[in-house]
Amino acid sequence: MRKLILSAALILLLINSHAQDKSPVKFGKISAEDFKTSVYSIDSNAAAVVIADIGNSSITGNSKGWFSIEFRHFKRIHILKKSSYELADVEIPLYTNGSSEEELQGLKAYTYNLENGKVVETKLEKSGVFQDKLSKNRLVKKFTFPAIKEGSIIEYEYTIHSDFITNLQPWEFQGAYPML
What we know:
Layout: H1 2-14, E1 48-61, E2 67-79, E3 89-95, E4 103-115, E5 118-123, E6 130-133, E7 138-144, E8 153-162
Antiparallel strand pairs: 1-2, 2-8, 3-7, 4-5, 4-8, 6-7
């Protein structure tokens, strides 16, 4: 079994895709122009639109003489109506086996609002991130974006470092809100 996992890991290391590296959406690059769209052609009745949802998993060597998975996630959402405020509540699931657990690293989350023609950013403070234990093997990190209102743009990014090489992160290609 260990040889099978090692072979799969080596194959994944050899496969190198950079399709997502060419995204025109970069973390923290928000301008007043980004707030001008209040109705998107993808769905003119949408309460929110997911502007970008980019994920990347990579297998890396670790200090324990084996492999780890690093999952990077970036998401940007334009909140258009109050009915989509639940998107400001984010939960990041993590796995634990009792002696070891996945680590959430590099979490950054900002709310952007347009005030008097200028972009005002509000940073999520570390004290605003909470952890709940859901079960023996499941934890969840939770946070709520500050300063949410109609028209806000929210974005976050983080990395999950996992020594559980068979525990890939789930991915949704569609959701309740339209995705660009």
